[in-house]
């Protein structure tokens, strides 16, 4: 994972072969690559629905695009947020359209009070209904984030059972993650824009015709969304970012923002984490989309979609090239950060709560290593690096623009 940026499941399969199925108190861990699509898939699989994560991901509109450079005064850090899923900034909207297209009945709750939200979740779990929730990752604890990231949000997870004082989560791994109720309640209430949000999915048995319709709607949604002119939430975001990497006038241009070198390693690491599957959110998702296109090609009898799948695997490789350029393993400080990032992800995926003290120690070492990397880059000449990243992004933008235009023709 550290060397290749691959997801836990992919890397593990290289070593041990096909992933085996793990369970906890009757709950089957389905794994997964992206938090949103994996959460829905996990609930439906445990209802007995035969459905893949790529098809769920496609139903929601597939891939997206988005770029934000954050500058935080409280700890003098800089971070890059990359959006790779359709409507990545709108959890509720994405859930609504995905579940609606799949024909899955659901209830959406935004309980105001912390205690009332916890009681509602407990009642649903006691009734045997797993829930998709959206807690703050810092408060969950198992991702080993520092206090500076308190309130920065997170991805959906499935709460599938509880005991007297804790709730068990499925976060795409193969082992249970038990969170004390008070901590989970605080995590769910931390981010005001989606405070205490919870989706309770009803039973659904979509047939092949319904899945074909859902896939077709998702493809058209993807083509329309990424053909838009927005340079914040559509493909022009990559072109905008490419320009900001070499611009010398814009206040958010990288040569200006990083003129003092401060926080550069954090920003580069967030690019690597955002683009590679080893990160917390599943990476650039182009390979997941390619798998979805292969399924849709058979489901819709559209062989051109299989050809597009190959193109998106090539685009995924371009993103890998960008990530490697941003955080090359040849730099010792970067190699150490990569290794520890992968170790934490592996602990979450393989061991869940059982990662315990080892995970906490890896977290301590990671943030120590990140601080050292930031310090080592303060005097770096960034012009060549930023020009290199800009060139990668220019190539990616043109490749994605051509691919989405082709998709628009196929789905017209």
TrEMBL record:
Transmembrane segments: none
Pfam families: BtrH_N, DUF4872
Domain of life: Bacteria
Domain Butirosin biosynthesis protein H N-terminal per the UniProt entry, residue ranges: 34-171
Domain DUF4872: 194-344
Name this protein carries in UniProt: DUF4872 domain-containing protein
Protein source organism: Nonomuraea turkmeniaca
